[in-house]
Specification:
The complex is a heterodimer of chains A (244) and B (348). Chain A has ten helices and ten strands. With 244 residues, chain A is an alpha/beta fold. In chain A, strand 1 (5-14) and strand 2 form a beta hairpin. Chain A has a domain at 5-90 and 160-242: P-loop containing nucleotide triphosphate hydrolases (Rossmann fold), CATH 3.40.50.300. With 348 residues, chain B is mostly helical. Chain B has a domain at 39-280. Chain B has helices at residues 2-27, 30-55, 63-83, 89-93, 109-133, 138-158, 160-163, 183-209, 211-227, 233-259, 269-282, 287-307, 312-326, 330-346; strands at residues 169-170, 174-175, 178-179, 261-262. In chain B, the strands form two sheets. In chain B, strands 1-4 form a two-stranded antiparallel ribbon. In chain B, strands 2-3 form a two-stranded antiparallel sheet. The longest helix of chain B has 27 residues, at 183-209. Classes of the chains: A alpha/beta (244), B mainly alpha (348). The A-B interface holds A 51, 53, 72-74, 77-78, 82-83, 85, 89-94, 98, 101-103, 105, 107-110, 113-116, 140, 158, 162 and B 2, 207, 210-212, 214-215, 217-218, 220-222, 224-233, 235-236, 239.
Chain lengths: 244, 348
């Protein structure tokens, strides 16, 4: 079977600095892939290129049979790729309910949104997702008033509303308490059924809780890839990353 | 809390309806009432600024340009009627001998009306969409609009034989043979204007309440995130800007027919900045507030220029700084705060 995401020979340079250097890797359907690596390894830049925020200087990104490189951000979202950012980005002036509603993947044109109505199926879907991300009783709260961890969950919920086939999550447990991390690990395992996830994470304990296959980046290049146990025993990985 | 907000907005609407439909027509003499109709023309623009700036986050310092479209189209129609079958007087003075081809359509009222509604939109939409697409926005876009308003003024003044130059277009008295400068016609036109203003306010409130309004607020908060929810944000911002342009044009058309003249000063930079101040004073996210803002600033402008004419610009500059520093949400914000503070006492 063809992989859901394949990155071929991808490079990007910022003013001569090669942030990602001829990277090739792929993600299978229904796979939960964790990407680790030291700071500046190019992890976030890689996600930025997949979701269209940064244009690569060279190489190709294929999602299913679609070439993502020429598409704009909103078009990439519409073909089924969702992105969660490192710092939680929600709409602070809107309520949890409105945040989720905006993410509902229909009527995203100007006229469509002008005459959008929250029908019972949409309201049900919003409640269902809110419950999934532990925010069922916060529907009327403004996103700006949520705790840091709750904002992270809300943003994951906003992605779930779009029913993406591929989700890109950048440090989803940053700033979370121990309990919230556990809940998030459960959440990620649950939502990875029927879709593929690429998760960037620094916290090795969290990586152990969720990871099956791990990709290690170093200085924009692929350093190692494989099951977690193998990675943990890889001399090169211990040298540049796990060792300290 | 959302309910309270709606209630305070409802009070705003009702208050405005009473003031505009009952109090002003009964209490003001015809001179003062004609001043009110002038202020209300700018209220159209201010409502548009609320949509574009308050919700879309698109600050335009060139709304005078769109006000000018409506104003000049209407004035061209009225002037042709006033001077028929001769050429308009200013053309004769500048020895223009044939009516320019682009004046011809304005013999017909329906064409005039159509241009008032359509041409500002046709210009505004690409003007906004192209830069937003390229991620040019904020201050840079404001400067583009400012430059356009300035260029339009210079062009209108320069082409005296076609546009009436610095004097503008004036001296028209009838609309389809109906005397428009009498007190009675002023009153009729005043009620037409108020009705139209309420239609515009209603449409704006509908837009703001719809999902589109929420997307606009979301874009203001975090435009990147909205793109990653699958929206073409440039399209939404361009829509808000276009709606603002359309409302400004309507205001301009009402101005020409009621005041009886349109001049380049009204479409220039100073006028355009004043239009933003109306919305800022009323509260840049309040549709009703914009109308109160336009009335309030309008009245104080008349008061000041009657008594200390030269101080007006200092006053309005000071007012703008005061509002930005101390009342970022304008009058509507202050009243909203008041309502919020009282809410716990009245709650069961």
């Amino acid at each position: 079977m063809t992989p859901i995401l394949s990155v071929e020979n991808l490079s990007v340079s910022f003013d001569g600095f090669l942030a990602v250097d001829s990277l090739t890797f792929s993600v299978e359907r229904d796979e939960l892939r964790v990407v680790i690596g030291p700071n500046g390894a190019g992890k976030t830049t890689l996600l930025d290129m997949i979701c269209g925020k940064t244009k690569p200087t060279q190489g190709r990104i294929r999602f299913k049979d679609i070439d993502l490189t020429p598409l704009g951000e909103h078009q990439i979202v519409r073909v089924g790729v969702g992105r969660k950012f490192q710092t939680p980005s929600t709409y602070e002036d809107l309520t949890v309910l409105e945040n989720l509603e905006i993410s509902y993947p229909r009527q995203r044109g100007v006229l469509g949104s002008l005459f959008f109505r929250r029908t019972p199926p949409i309201a049900d879907r919003i409640r269902e997702v809110a419950a999934e991300v532990y925010l069922a009783d916060q529907l009327e709260t403004k996103a700006g008033a949520l705790s840091h961890g709750q904002k992270q969950w809300l943003e994951i919920g906003m992605l779930l509303m779009q029913r993406p086939e591929l989700m890109l999550l950048d440090e989803p447990v940053a700033g979370m308490s121990h309990r919230e991390r556990e809940l998030t690990a459960d959440l990620l395992k649950k939502i990875s059924h029927g879709r593929s996830l690429v998760v960037i994470e620094h916290d090795m304990e969290f990586v152990k809780a969720i990871a099956r296959k791990v990709t290690v980046l170093h200085q924009g290049k692929l350093l190692s890839e494989g099951p977690l146990e193998q990675i943990q025993n890889d001399e090169r990985v211990i040298d540049v990353y796990l060792g300290h | 809390m959302r309910r309270l907000l709606r209630r305070s907005e409802l009070i705003g609407y009702l208050g405005l309806a009473v003031v505009l439909l009952v109090v002003f027509p009964l209490a003001l003499d015809s001179f003062r009432l004609s001043l009110v109709s002038k202020y209300l023309c700018f209220a159209f623009v201010a409502v548009g600024v609320v949509l574009a700036w308050g919700y879309g986050g698109v600050l335009s310092l060139g709304q005078g340009l769109f006000f000018g479209f409506g104003g000049y189209f209407m004035a061209m129609f009225l002037k042709l009627e006033a001077s028929a079958p001769e050429l308009p007087d200013f053309m004769v003075w500048s020895s223009t001998e044939v009516l320019p081809w682009w004046w011809e359509p304005y013999h017909h009222f329906w064409v005039t009306l159509l241009s008032i509604l359509v041409i500002p939109c046709l210009l505004a939409f690409p003007l906004a969409y192209a830069p937003f697409r390229k991620r040019v926005g904020g201050v840079y876009f404001a400067i583009i609009t400012l430059a356009l308003a300035l260029a339009a003024t210079v062009m209108v003044i320069g082409q005296q034989g076609y546009t009436g130059g610095a004097n503008g277009i004036t001296d028209f008295k009838t609309f389809h043979g109906w005397e428009i400068m009498s007190d009675r016609s002023h009153l009729v036109l005043y009620f037409v204007e108020v009705a139209l203003l309420f239609v515009v306010m209603g449409a704006s409130t509908f837009i703001v309440r719809s999902r589109l309004g929420k997307v606009l607020v979301a874009i203001r908060d975090s435009e990147d995130r909205v793109r990653f929810s699958g929206y073409d944000t440039a399209l939404f911002k361009a829509f808000a800007f276009t709606a603002g342009a359309l409302f400004a044009s309507l205001g301009g058309a009402m101005y020409s027919i009621q005041v009886g003249l349109i001049t380049p000063t009204l479409i220039g930079v100073v006028a355009s900045v004043e239009m933003v101040i109306y919305a800022a004073v009323g509260g840049r996210t309040s549709v009703v507030g914009a109308v109160y803002g336009a009335l309030l600033v309008g009245f104080s402008k008349s008061l000041f220029s009657e008594n200390f004419a030269t101080l007006w610009l200092f006053f309005i500059g000071g007012l703008f700084i005061f509002v930005v520093l101390f009342m970022p949400n304008g009058l509507a914000g202050v009243l909203g705060q008041f309502g919020k503070r009282r809410a716990p006492e009245t709650a069961p």
